[in-house]
Amino acid sequence: MREPISDQILAAAGGLFYSEGIRAVGIDRIIEEAKVAKATLYRHFPSKDHLVAAYLQDRHERVIRSLREALDATGAPRDQVRVIFERLYEKADSPEFRGCAFALAVAEHGDSERVVSVARTHKKAVSDIFRAIISKAELGPDQTAAHLSLLYEGALATVAVGRDPTAVLVARDCALSVFDAAIPHDRTS
Fold this sequence. Notes:
This protein is an all-alpha fold. It has helices spanning 5-20, 27-34, 38-44, 48-72, 77-92, 101-109, 113-136, 142-162, 166-182, 185-188.
């Protein structure tokens, strides 16, 4: 069965946007890659801004699904934190990995409220996942979840700049230390 044309366009645009950058990729290149007519592209996505936002929304759904799968891989909150970072390491340990698609998009296309809104929604959803883990572990303050989220975001940025995926493993170790430090002393004995 053939994929819908909008998905075909989105797949082509998404691959190009992530690998080459949003501003570097023109509509004509997307049309060529997706093998569609210009009118077809614009019928599905009225502007490049709409296409970028759709690409980010699609990526958001895939990343959140992946994070939830990591949560389902183990029931223990500490292990969930570990698995999230280890799966990020697996992704980061690829020559195609450029870092956070949302940070890249805002850096290039931050004048678009549509793009910024999707990016903010994504960042909040990631923070909410860490907040849910901390809540499940009954570890109290949201500050611990904020620390974990910041370590995750920092790992993404560090790998993007330094091109060394082991930064994610360092962030994992820091995250586990933060998690362990948040456990009340009466629960550790």
